[in-house]
Amino acid sequence: MGIVVDIRKRLESFDLRVSFEAGDETVALLGESGCGKSMTLRCIAGIETPDAGRIVVNGVTYFDAERGIDLSPQKRKTALLFQSYELFPHMTVADNIAAGLVGESAEVRRARVGRELERFGLAELSGRYPLQLSGGQQQRVALARMLAAEPPVLMLDEPFSALDAHLKAGLEQSLSVLFREFSGTVLYVSHDIDEAVRLSDRIAVVERGRVRDFCPAAQLIDRPRSVAALKLSGCKNIFAVEPAGSFQVRIPAWGIELNCGDEVPEGANAAGVRAFRLERADGPGSNAVRVRVAHAIDARFDRTYLLDLVANGPDAADASPTGDAAPVPGATPTVNANQAAGAVPAGARATGSEDQRSSEEASPARSGAWRENRLVWRVSTLSSDEEDLPQVGDELWLRIPPEHLYVVAEGPVAPAR
């Protein structure tokens, strides 16, 4: 038993073409705002109607364009939690929970409402109205209403978007337990990779209405297979590449070749490395690049560096290409490495006015240097002494570990299974 979704719907800016299957598990639909995640849930719930395709839940056909089947939302009995919770302001907590039990006997209604009040710790709030509740309490009421109806599919559309970090952390724990206990498919919409990893069994990466990747969370992090998966899984360094051997790729923007830990896929055209995977190196060597610190930002437990690529001297002249790099699929167009880094000789300090450098640092997207010609490096400040950390303007060598260089090939989008 489970859910089968294979639908198409024409939207204003793209065609929604989503295809996936899921069983008794939690699946996160991960993607940027406006990519079709929420529309997919609305089609499953019957709020929106696809142009073509079919939706089957636990063997029951909810929608089939060819056969003319389109069950009403009431007959589908799916549960969809909106970002705004959609509680009835004139009803008490208990009445809101019972609102989805139309057609059930009074005895069944009382039993299920009591069960959910107990499950979500709402018994003492049963007589209150939504405006008398906190955001977290309102969400618990909305979840209780969903579970009381005993739906075959549980769907949540970014349920934490309106909550502060402290409240979100507590509710994530509650939802994790709820998802494990729920007997059926849970579909969870998010644009937060960490949230998706914590709460889901598998993740469907959605980009412009297409499922680009569909795999367990660990695989998405350790072996992403598309540029969309790289971006949405938090990879900060993405660049265009060309195959240069079975285990090597060439980066046209840098003019160098990198060794890879895995065999290069056919048609490889992009690669990425996570900011925290970059390693300090003593000097030139395999997979080593010379960089200059352009900017640094401190967080609670780490420091993030924005690094300009620097020419590596006469013995590494190829690191200063004269041609433009091929664009990364879905990435912002970028400039040549010489333009971004200034191509200063080895051992030289950066020159130029502070105003020029500050302007570029303040708007890296406008300069086009975020991906191809700059690197983002994250260092733990808990395990490093301040005097050992580089400062703005310093030049250093970094190594890209082959085992953490993710090479992908953008190709036709296949249905997820």
UniProtKB/TrEMBL annotation:
Q: PROSITE patterns from the entry? A: ABC_TRANSPORTER_1 (PS00211), ABC_TRANSPORTER_2 (PS50893)
Any one GO MF term held by the record is: ATP binding
Q: Where is the composition biased (Low complexity)?
A: 341-351
Name recorded for this polypeptide: ATP-binding cassette domain-containing protein
Which UniProt keywords are given for this protein, alphabetically ordered?
A: ATP-binding, Nucleotide-binding, Transport
Q: What Pfam family is a match for this entry?
A: ABC_tran
Report the source organism.
Answer: Berryella wangjianweii
Chain ranges of the ABC transporter domain: 2-233
Query: Record's SMART domains?
Result: AAA
Matching entries from InterPro entries are given as: AAA+_ATPase (IPR003593), ABC_SmlMolc_Importer (IPR050093), ABC_transporter-like_ATP-bd (IPR003439), ABC_transporter-like_CS (IPR017871), P-loop_NTPase (IPR027417)
Q: Which domain of life is it from?
A: Bacteria
Q: Where is the stretch described as Disordered? A: 317-336, 341-368
